[in-house]
Design a protein that fits this description.
There is one protein chain. The chain has helices at residues 28-35, 38-41, 56-69, 115-130, 145-153, 182-193; strands at residues 12-14, 18-21, 72-79, 88-93, 101-106, 135-141, 157-166, 171-181. With 216 residues, the chain is an alpha+beta fold. The protein is built from 6 helices and 8 strands. The longest helix is centred in the middle third of the chain and has 16 residues, at 115-130. It is globular. The strands form 2 sheets. It has a 5-stranded antiparallel sheet with strand order 1-2-3-4-5, sandwiched between helices. Strands 6-8-7 form a 3-stranded antiparallel sheet. 29% of the residues lie in helices and 25% in strands.
């Protein structure tokens, strides 16, 4: 599903404030520290809390391998001015339906600054530009309104609620399903070129994690 362009570890996405790049072994300590926080982990399906020290490097290796094989596209979120400083992660994954699923998390020191929205919009623009897919899926726990807001500002529409297995949380939990179709994305891009934004910020964001890019 993911093109050759994304399968080289020099691949990156740049936004106004962020640099999204492949993960590196040097990111291990930041992932362990940030993803392992309870406030981040508890909003995800597979990030354990506490995060086992011996699980970080195998996770990074698996993410790099999957990128190289085109199985997924998982990227570290870093400040553009400090591309070696991981502050979160974002990823897109294949589904049996053929529609990619995106997930992300952001370390708590970086919540409320719009970084998650910026990263999500960069990734969806890339997917619709490089991959011939009709839509993109995402979901979030019902107790995570901040991540719901990130998805809504990026054009996603709620499709309904369901119980999802969150292995690291130990059972089934209520979640909300979201989808962004290509026609909606195209309209938003057209409006943006005319001066419109994806969606206005009516309230300050307190961005929490909607999901992890891949089970760790």
């Amino acid at each position: 599903m993911f093109p050759e362009l994304t399968r080289d570890d020099v691949f990156r996405l740049e936004t106004r404030r962020l640099w999204l790049r492949w993960t590196r072994m040097a990111d291990a300590s930041a992932i362990l520290r940030l993803a392992g926080e309870k406030a981040v982990a508890e909003m995800t399906a597979a990030i354990p809390h506490p995060y086992p020290v011996d699980a970080v490097e195998p996770f990074i290796f698996a993410m790099r391998k999957g990128n190289a094989l085109g199985e997924h596209l998982v990227l570290a979120i870093t400040p553009r001015a400090k591309p070696n400083e991981l502050i979160g992660m974002i990823g897109a994954h294949k589904q049996a339906t053929g529609i990619p699923f995106i997930g992300y998390w952001l370390g708590t020191p970086h919540w409320g600054k719009g970084f998650a929205t910026e990263a999500v919009q960069a990734l969806i623009d890339t997917l619709f530009t490089l991959v011939d897919v009709p839509a993109i899926d995402a979901d979030t726990r019902v107790i995570n309104p901040a991540s719901r807001r990130v998805l809504e500002k990026s054009g996603f529409r709620q499709e309904g609620s369901f119980l999802k297995s969150l292995p690291a949380r130990g059972g089934l939990f209520p979640c909300e399903q979201f989808r962004l179709d290509r026609s909606t994305w195209s309209a938003l891009k057209s409006w943006g070129s005319s001066g419109w934004a994806h969606a206005p910020d009516l309230l300050p964001e307190v961005e929490a994690a909607s999901g992890e890019p891949c089970p760790a």
